Amino acid sequence: MKGQLEGKVAFIAGAASGIGRGIALRFSREGARLALADIQENLLEELSAQLKKNGTEARTYRLDISKPRETQQVVDQIMLDFGALHIFVNTAGVVQSNNFLDVTEEEWDRVIDINQKGTAFATQAVARAMIQLIPDEVKRAGKAERSYGKIVNFTSISGRRGRAYQLAYAASKAAVISITQSAALAFAPYNINVNAIAPSVVLTPMWDENNRLKQKAFGVDAQKTSEEFIARIPLKRPGTVDDMAAAALFLCSSESDYITGQTLNVDGGFEMN
Ligand SMILES: NC(=O)c1ccc[n+]([C@@H]2O[C@H](COP(=O)([O-])OP(=O)(O)OC[C@H]3O[C@@H](n4cnc5c(N)ncnc54)[C@H](O)[C@@H]3O)[C@@H](O)[C@H]2O)c1
């Protein structure tokens, strides 16, 4: 049976771990050709070897997404390697959890540079490449609907409202929602859909790090604080990497062609707007 992304070139940033890795595995089963980027090169190579064994075309790119020039170079290289770019999913990110009064300028800059600046300029570089791919006669005839461009950013329920203990993280994730809306408006004339996914809890290295940071800052028990948070989710379980991949697949497939500028809560009902 044909996959939903057969032959599509999908660039996944943050693919080495957690949600990004799960999306790479799912998209490979749907027939996508994969450009995988991350700052953790070793994990990326392991994933790529596994995908290639299963017959997927996969290439890896070392990327620090906080550096717009590096992102542009990676996008340029993907265009040379694959000759196309149809899909971009950005899961690269870092978390921060401590007392509002203790946040340093260095912490703020690190989180904002990766989560916020990284998302803005990666979206820009990818959209530039997607627009270049649209033949001039198609652009002139105003028939961009024949092109295919899907961008999915990862925000968080922490981007939906402030968090006393996540000054920088929540601000950066609120910005991702805004960047997604701005990009959706800017690139609608080219038929590029730009949407975002807001998870609550997914049991990945980032969730563990979040609980470790809370333990360090507030002296709470990491395991207990995790369990208490999950108990507040209406569906009474954490999300899985597969839950996230299913939502990303929907937003990267033709099934969502009439959806743009939206942030989809994939969060077990934690937030409702
Ligand atoms: N896990 C959760 O509970 C949860 C909840 C809400 C939102 N999210 C969001 O989902 C996304 C994926 O998170 P995850 O849980 O898979 O985390 P993760 O830590 O498992 O994966 C994040 C990936 O981003 C990469 N990365 C970090 N800094 C980078 C940089 N400067 N350049 C390139 N890559 C970089 C890491 O190496 C890692 O592979 C993040 O944006 C996160 O904020 C996660």
Describe, in plain words, how this protein is organized in 3D.
The relative contact order is 0.15. The protein has helices spanning 18-29, 41-53, 68-82, 105-133, 136-140, 167-187, 205-218, 222-231, 241-252, and strands spanning 9-13, 33-38, 58-62, 87-90, 149-154, 192-199, 263-266. The chain has a seven-stranded parallel β-sheet, sandwiched between helices. Helix 1 packs across helix 9, helix 4 (105-133) packs parallel to helix 6 and helix 7 packs across helix 8. It is globular. The protein is built from nine helices and seven strands, in the order E-H-E-H-E-H-E-H-H-E-H-E-H-H-H-E. The chain binds nicotinamide-adenine-dinucleotide (NAD). The site of nicotinamide-adenine-dinucleotide has 27 residues, from helix 1 and helix 7.
Unreliable spans = none
Would you report the number of β strands? Answer: 7
Q: How many angstroms does the end-to-end distance come to?
A: 36 Å
Q: Indicate the overall shape.
A: globular
What is the count of distinct domains?
1
Radius of gyration, CA atoms, in whole angstroms: 18 Å
**Biggest beta-sheet profile:** 7 strands, parallel
CATH class: Alpha Beta
What sequence of helices (H) and strands (E) makes up the elements?
EHEHEHEHHEHEHHHE
Number of helices: 9
Unique bound compounds:
nicotinamide-adenine-dinucleotide
Give the strand content.
5-15%
Name the average pLDDT.
96
By secondary-structure content and strand pairing, the structural class works out as alpha/beta
**CATH architecture annotation:** 3-Layer(aba) Sandwich
Spatial strand order of the main sheet: 3-2-1-4-5-6-7
User: Helicity, in percent?
Assistant: 40-55%
Question: What is the CATH superfamily?
Answer: NAD(P)-binding Rossmann-like Domain
CATH topology group: Rossmann fold
